[in-house]
Design goal:
This protein is an alpha+beta fold. The protein folds into three domains: about 75-125, Cysteine Rich Protein (Ribbon), CATH 2.10.110; about 135-210, Ribbon (Cysteine Rich Protein), CATH 2.10.110; about 220-340 and about 360-525, no CATH class. Helices cover about 25% and strands about 25% of the residues. Strands 1, 14, 15, 16, 17, 18, 19, 20, 21 and 22 form a ten-stranded mixed β-sheet that branches. A three-stranded antiparallel β-sheet has the order 2-8-9, with no helix packed on it. A three-stranded antiparallel β-sheet has the order 3-4-5, with no helix packed on it. Strand 20 (about 485-495) and strand 21 form a beta hairpin. Helix 5 (about 315-330) crosses helix 9 (about 430-450) and helix 8 (about 425-430) crosses helix 9 (about 430-450). GO terms for molecular function: metal ion binding. This is LIM zinc-binding domain-containing protein. Keywords: LIM domain, Metal-binding, Repeat, Zinc.
């Protein structure tokens, strides 16, 4: 929070002192008179209507109506006899009445300050704006300068500043409205420069930490089948493969996917990965992008957490990470989709909570609905509907945890709901999310086959080397935290002060491909899916053949 503000102090300068004559007693000391009033010259005349030339010339006027009896000079303490100056209730010899600044006698009027000092015409204060004397006018003091109250005006709009002034330069001030507008303009300009630097940093990070999905990583089905031991003569034609299962013998085979049903195509490598995860952990693959310091959710680094850990650096694990990272880019505003709202639009309860201290949140992919359609000829068509959930995070002794309740009007929840409603459009625009759908469908199919009684060939599954990212051991498990700082800078008023309010967002999350149902739902269709020209239908080596199973 940046605080600024000020109040101008006004004062009315008191009237100038009065001048007059004083009649001394008969025993006037001529030596003293010569010192205070100066020697009397023959034929001298008074210096003005209120001054006399010498005390001795007034000795004869005992009955003068303005006579002062034994009045002492406020400056020297001597008895006043002759010309005098009265300022308030104080009397001075004319020669003792001097300027408090230059120490010269005051002969042509003066100004008395509120501290009791007397200033001559040359030393009295002047208005910083109009360069005219301040005496007799309401004044305003600001930044060491003094102004007439009427001259103290905003340099932006020209209106008189009556309450609250803000410096805009040497002797230049703004009213509250113009100050807020100028401050906001400076912050917007600063935010623009910060945005440019952040974009450059994000481009460097994307290259250094491989923060973009690489389509060339998608495993080739023909190469996978060849690695599993399927010969060229029995290899199904094409790249798209469909998995079939004989309901009687539990024989699992692979065949070219029909063009009429693209959803029947399955990536065999993703199927092998899901089988290994399910056999080892009895749970679907999971991923989480967490802060390196559990108690500092806005820290500089985030850590990739794979479940099981050996998914790190595999292609399937990279799919989980890249899809989650693309989700964060949408939420941070780095990627814009017409079907989605802006998460940082400054609306909703989330913005109000940030003003009160801010909270982080997490979003992650979940499986909404899943199942397998079984055709009459044994062809299996897995289907999986993904969505996004959101939770607010609150600090605890263990770090940040899910809040007990998340407001449905929260902008994070609104974004998650929008992504879920337009998931097909999101997947079409984001390649990693589209690949996540293929991985989720393969995971659903793997679980269905195991639940249906198909026996996995553990030896073949163990020998199969899961495709890995080319960086290998140099695969980075830590990445810079994706954050956006420029999003909401606004000037707000709190009491009598203007404050610059800034908001930034910290979002974390992951992927959970778990199917909530106890068993994968199945739908049987009494129609064949494969045509007569489907081609070879070899056994899938990931499962035991029917003869061995019997």
């Amino acid at each position: 929070w940046i605080r600024t503000g000020g109040r101008a102090a006004a004062q009315l300068v008191p009237p100038p002192p009065a001048l007059g004559w004083s009649s001394p007693p008969r025993q006037t000391n001529r030596r003293a008179c010569a010192r205070r009033c100066g020697p009397a010259a023959p034929g001298s005349r008074p210096m003005g209507a209120s001054f006399a030339a010498c005390c001795s010339e007034r000795d004869k006027e005992d009955d003068h109506p303005q006579a002062l009896q034994r009045q002492a000079c406020q400056a020297c303490g001597g008895v006043i006899a002759g010309r005098y100056v009265k300022s308030g209730n104080s009397f001075f010899h004319a020669g003792c009445f001097v300027c408090s600044t230059c120490r010269r006698p005051i002969t042509d009027g003066c100004v008395q300050t509120k501290e009791g000092q007397h200033l001559c015409a040359a030393c009295q204060p002047w208005c910083y704006a109009c360069r005219q004397p301040l005496a007799g006018h309401m004044t305003v003091s600001a930044g060491g300068c003094r102004f007439h109250a009427e001259c103290f005006r905003c340099s932006g709009c020209g209106t008189k500043i009556a309450d609250g002034h803000y410096p805009a330069g040497p002797g230049v001030y703004h009213c509250e409205a113009c100050h807020a507008s100028a401050w906001q303009a400076r912050e917007d300009s600063l935010d623009s420069r910060v945005l440019a630097l952040e974009r450059q940093a994000k481009l460097r990070n994307a290259a250094d930490f491989r923060l973009q999905w690489r389509p060339e990583l998608v495993p080739c089905n023909r190469q996978v089948l060849q690695a599993l031991g399927v010969g060229q003569l029995s290899m199904p034609p094409g790249e798209q493969m469909c998995v079939c299962c004989d309901p009687a013998t539990k024989q699992v085979t692979v065949v070219a996917a029909p063009r009429s049903e693209p959803r029947a195509a399955v990536n065999i490598s993703y199927l092998a990965t899901a089988l290994r995860v399910l056999r080892q952990t009895r749970h679907e693959p999971q991923f989480s992008l967490d802060p390196k310091n559990a108690h500092d959710i806005g820290g500089d680094l985030q850590v990739k957490m794979f479940y099981p850990p050996w998914l790190a650096a595999t292609v399937a694990g990279e799919v989980l990470f890249q899809a989650d990272y693309e989700l964060k880019q949408i939420c941070m505003g780095d990627r814009q989709l017409p079907c989605l709202p802006s998460l940082l639009d400054g609306q909703g309860p989330w913005s109000q909570q940030e003003e009160r201290g801010g909270r982080a949140a997490r979003q992650w992919f979940v499986v909404r609905r899943a199942g397998v359609t079984v055709a009459q000829d044994g062809a299996l068509v897995p289907h999986c509907e993904l969505g996004v959930d959101a939770r607010q995070l609150v600090p605890s002794e263990r770090g940040y945890v899910d809040a007990a309740r998340t407001d449905e009007r929260d902008s994070m929840v609104r974004m998650a709901k929008a992504i879920s409603e337009h998931f097909a459009e999101v997947a079409a625009a984001l390649p990693a999310v589209a690949e996540l759908v293929h991985l989720a469908r393969a995971t659903v199919l793997a679980r269905y086959l195991l639940e249906s009684g198909c026996r996995c060939d553990e030896a073949t599954l163990a020998r199969y080397a899961l495709p890995r990212c080319p960086e290998g051991d140099r695969y980075s498990m830590e990445i810079p935290t994706l954050r956006t700082k420029q999003l909401a800078s606004s000037v707000v008023k709190q009491g009598r002060e203007l404050l610059m309010q800034k908001r930034h967002r910290s979002i974390h999350g992951g992927v959970d491909l778990g199917v909530k149902a106890e068993k994968v739902p199945t739908q049987v269709v009494h129609q064949p899916l494969l045509g007569p020209d489907a081609g070879p239908r070899p056994p899938l080596p990931l499962f035991h053949c029917a003869a061995a199973a019997s």
